[in-house]
Structures are given as structure tokens and as C-alpha cells.
Amino acid sequence: MMQSSIPKRWHIDESIYDAYTVDCLTMVDTHWHSHFLLNLFTEGEGVQEINGESYPIHSGSIIIISPLDFHRNVIREGEKVSVCAVKFSDKLFYDSIGKLCSLEDFPIVTTLYGEDFDTAKMLFSLLLKEQEKKSSLGADKFAANLIDQLVILALRAGGCAKRQEQYSRVRRALAYIHYNFRRGIKAADVAKHIGYSPNYFSAEFKKETGVEFQKYLQELRLDFAMNLLKLSKLSVTEACFESGFNTLPHFSQSFKKKFGVTPEKIKEENR
């Protein structure tokens, strides 16, 4: 275990997953991730604030957040909260977990009891050991299977039922977009990722979502920027670029058009 020192933004780079344990001894300020994150709380009590809502945490609590979610830990002075955590990429999401839930289900917040809690701790123990031998034959596949089982335990405890609809390539594209929207991605990038031509992807995306790709991407960035301004200490300029916009004038104009108020006004109201 190590004392928590969590930066405002974490990036998973090229890794499919990264598992670790951490002892949180003080409050961790609002931050977000460019990947999915699963936390299993094994000791202590506190509060996890996710997207502005508070959830009590204790031994057995399990939380899974997506790249769109903001969170922070609120811990009483003198309290220690121990966490087993694994961050994983969108690839693992759409290859397996995305067939059991959708992005709309996040954040997932629930509690494991008894045998399920013991099983989750055992799975994490195996995951940490497997991570130490990543070069071994099939190590990534074995680790991905362990993460799948952890997510399934959380979904079952939260009452989520298996989805019956076809897991289309457009839904796979949505996972990729939600994972990468803060970067300068284009429709051609997403199309290549799922094996479609750009024109065919654009047509299929609009047919399945009801909106054009560029509009969907901008709405996603604007909603993210709104949360940044409300829940973080970033300035308007920082929120603009963190959300994936290239220029401040375009960001401000688009923001006011969508929300009817300037980003500066939102920042001032939530200072």
C-alpha cells in the first residue's frame, strides 16, 4: 500500500490496464480520467463525490466510472481508506464489458457483500500478480478476464441485467469517441477504428444516434466543459482546451449557444 497522491488528470497511454492499491489518507480533489476506472474499497469510510453527487463509501463499496465522470474522495481527518483499483482502456470496454452495459449506465456505484466481496479481493490479488508478469504468455488476456469478472460482480450487485440488443459497430464507435473526445479526433479516425469507410460511418452514425458525428462530438465536449467549470478549479481557458476545443472564441460562442450563458458566468457562479 502507498499513500495517495493522485494528479488531476491520469492517462493510461498504450496500456490496456493498470492495477494498483492505494491508501487514501487525505481528501483527493476533483479530477477525471482518460480511461475507465474501477475502485474496490477494502477498508475505512468516507464519501465519493461523482459528478457533483455524494455516495457513502465503506468496506465492500465498488465504483466504476467512465472518461466522462468527475470524482473526488472526501475522507475524515485521521481516517484511512484502502482501495484496490484498476484503470482500463476503451478497448477492453468495447471488446467485452460493453456487451453487458452501455455508457449511459455509468457511473456504477454499488456494494459487494460476503462471498462476492471475498471473490473481488481474490480477483484483485490475482490481477496484481498477473501484472507483474505482463511479458508472460497470455498475460493480458488473463488480466482482461479478471477485470471482466470484477465488472460482472459490480453489475450483478447493482441489479444490471444483460442487454439483449446487438452490439453494433456504432456502439463500439461511441466508446471510442467517449474515450478520445478531448483529442483532435475526426470522423475518419473513428471510421478507421471500427473498419468503416468515412462516408459509410457518417451515415450509419446518424442513423443510429439521430445526430451527425460532428454535432455529437461538440455536444459531448460542451457537456464535459460545463462539468469542468462547475466541479473543478480550472479557468475558462483551461476548460476550453481540456474539453477538446482548439480556440477560445469558438468554445465561448458554442457554449453560450447551447446553455444560454457564457462560460465565464458559470465559472463565476461556481467559484
Task: Give the gist of this structure.
It contains 10 helices and 10 strands. The chain is α+β, with helices and mostly antiparallel strands and 271 residues long. The protein folds into 2 domains: 149 residues, Jelly Rolls; 101 residues, Homeodomain-like (Arc Repressor Mutant, subunit A, Orthogonal Bundle).
Fold and architecture overview:
- With about 270 residues, the protein is an alpha+beta fold.
- It has 2 domains: about 10-155, Sandwich (Jelly Rolls), CATH 2.60.120; about 170-270, Arc Repressor Mutant, subunit A (Orthogonal Bundle), CATH 1.10.10.60.
- The protein has 10 helices and 10 strands.
- The chain has helices at about 90-95, 115-130, 140-155, 170-180, 185-195, 200-210, 215-230, 235-240, 250-260, 265-270; strands at about 10, 15-25, 30-35, 35-45, 45-50, 55, 60-65, 70-75, 80-90, 110.
- The strands form 2 sheets. A 5-stranded mixed beta sheet has the order 1-3-8-5-6, covered by helices on one side.
- Strand 5 (about 45-50) and strand 6 form a beta hairpin.
- The two termini are about 35 Å apart.
